[in-house]
What does this fold into?
Amino acid sequence: MATEVAEHLEVHRHPEPTNFWTKYIFSIDHKVIGIQYIILAIVAVFVGMALSLLVRLRLVWPDKPIEILGTLFPVGAPEGVMTPEFYLAMLTMHGTMMVFMVLTTAPQGGFGNYILPIQIGAADMAFPTLNMLSFWTTFVSFVTLCAAFFVQGGAPIAGWTAYPPLSALDEATIGGYGQDLWLLSIAFFCIGSLLGALNFIVTTLQLRAKGLTMMRLPLTVWTWFVTAILGLLAFGVLLSAGVLLLMDRLGGTSFFIPGGLLVNDIPIDHTGGSPILWQHLFWFFGHPEVYIAILPGMGVTSHILATFARKPVFGYKAMVYAVVAIGALGFVVWGHHMFVSGMSPYSGFVFSVLTMCIGVPSAIKTFNWIGTLWGGKIRFTTPMLYSIGFVSLFVTGGISGIFLGQPSVDLFFHDTYFVVAHFHLIMGVAAIFGMFAGVAFWFPKFFGRMMSEGMGKVHFWLTFLGVYAIFGPMHYLGVIAHPRRYAETTSVDYLGAAGANEIHYFVTMAAMITVTVQCLFLINVVWSLFKGKRVTSDNPWEATTLEWVTATPPAHDNFEGRIPTVNHGPYEFSVPGAPRDYVMQCNAPDAAPARKSGE
Amino acid sequence: MSDAHAEPTAEATWQGGGSPFAVGHKKLGMWLFIVSDALTFGALLMAYSYLRVANDWPTPFDFYPAIIFSSVMTLVLLSSSLTMVFGVSCASKGDRAGTKKWIWATILGGLLFVVLHSYEWNHLIHEGLTPFSSPYGTPLFGATFFTLTGLHMTHVAIGVVYLAVIANGFGRGKYDAEDVEVVGLYWHFVDLVWMFIFPMVYLLSTKV
Ligand code: HEM
Ligand SMILES: [Cu+2]
It folds into this structure.
């Protein structure tokens, strides 16, 4: 029995592929798959940004003809004027692209895939073929989603949350297959994410190198691990909900459609269902999902702050417990999205208190980040700037969350631009800053060249100011009770009187500039690929974790058959008495004389 | 960096270089799959309960044939779990022939379940029950009934194929005892799910 278990634990050493297809397309190498996820996310983020610009244009100039739109979308924008349905369709696709195809793919499937096995000293994931399947399932999901643009009836309009009855009834929309494709795409996405999550968990538990205890894991690994657990528990529920909604649309069932409904004066022939049921199922997934998006960013930030402050992460154990607590509490707060759904005030109270509880581990993390920076010998590299930006955005977005977590306050703020500001800062932009940081930090390991620091810094500052310019004023729009998801508000008196039109104009301008600035990032990536400064060492940042002892870029099996042994904790910087100001995890046990290793 | 090839140990260890639970990847992976699949079924059962409470729910199942039938199906499925246990035990003792025999007995149980269940479906469809209409009252009765039992039956059908693959491969030495154990885990889980569906969907809807 014993030898058998050992056999099952053998690290996967698959032979290096020689042909183009198995090497770059249907690769089972976690590094290639990671890059594939990142490319998918980059394509999706540019599509998503283009959609957001359409949304912004329509908000400021609801009836101004834009000729090119008329040519491109004769139905959605006849004579260049976007219809309200078209606005909603673009909004829905924007949200879906960003939340699923960007924030759920690159941080976990992209960076996690590439870096996690190396940081734990493994040759690959536990199930390499399954890993490939996860990616390609996600890819099919992406293609299915894009197909929704082109079918009869066009893209769905029910928002990324797909609330029924709007999402369930053709009578309520233009009809067509957009929403069906959307649901199909989400179902594929769930399956791909579930397979991925399973793989990450097994890999982290089983494939750690000798000496790499859980409390010596880099915080990046911890956040990928907890994210995978969240994914494993959340996506199954979304899958069920999606299938039920698809049956309502195609099978004539009425899980989510109540009786006695009149839509556009047409009586709807369904009875017995409940739209609230969808909200429960959706948000049981949806809240953990926002942590799926943000946790990897937290890990990357912790990792980078310590590296460039040349200090151990302040309160490593507290950081680990905080991540676990955030993950666990994330499953019991979904009701805070439903305060106005008519829930009992007692339930609202419970959800509110639990929501406030999440503030505690979040604050612990924030203070520990500041503690890590405090008194450090800070090196202001581009990855460091992005990480500090992450902390700023996380705090700003977190504070508005505390407002929204109060049912009495949320009664007013729900479905206003205050919410839009909140989730964009904390989830959208913060997570994206985590990715920027990750790209800038690991680029030298991926490609053997540094990214341009100059372009990086310009991009950081313009983006950082840009996102605050876009989403800062939206808080005010929420305060003046500006509802979200409305295609046309320029002629609403109470909003105009409070200055909403000018603000929308300002925000749209800021958005156009910020989106343009993102091309600089792309240029930086491409330029650095060919012209960036070549790295002179395998460890250009003088970091401590295992990915920096591999070749650059890492060999096919990462460690060229010599799996390291780990003797130290992940963040041994400025160790008193050590010859250098850092001790790598795989250095000899006596490399850090003064401080006890690990713990 | 040590040059020594870090050989994985077979003992449970959290120290790295081995499995914390002294299990192979596949077994741990199956446990995790079961967790996520349990949530998929859990969501459906929650939805079912929610809709059941919110509506005037019919109780149309006669003692004969529905309840008798479903009880026999339950018995068949439970017995197939038992034969699976024998199969796993044979496999761990290295008894290839015995393992194969017991797994095939399990497959037979699974097939019998599917046949009985299809017969039962057929009977209900003849009475006019479909996913979108029901002769007994709210159409949601049919919708939830077919969704829950349908998804479960799919799991049984997949399980039958999976079992056949393992039985065949184990006989030829392609799979080992742990692979048998892993398919066993899956099979017991499918059985366990039925132990929720049977009381919640059938027994609670018995004509009184
Ligand atoms: C270039 C930067 C961005 C701009 C200008 C932008 C703009 C907008 C606007 C104007 C809305 C519609 C508000 C409404 O009418 O309800 C919106 C919604 C949304 N955005 Fe963004 N956004 C940007 C980036 C992102 C990112 C990175 C994410 C990733 C999470 C994201 C996720 C969402 C979501 C989930 C919604 C809600 C969609 C819905 O309710 O259906 N956005 N965005
Ligand atoms: Cu939430």
Remarks:
- The CA atoms of residues 235 and 399 of chain A lie 28 Å apart.
- The radius of gyration of chain A is 24 Å.
- The mean pLDDT of chain A is 93.
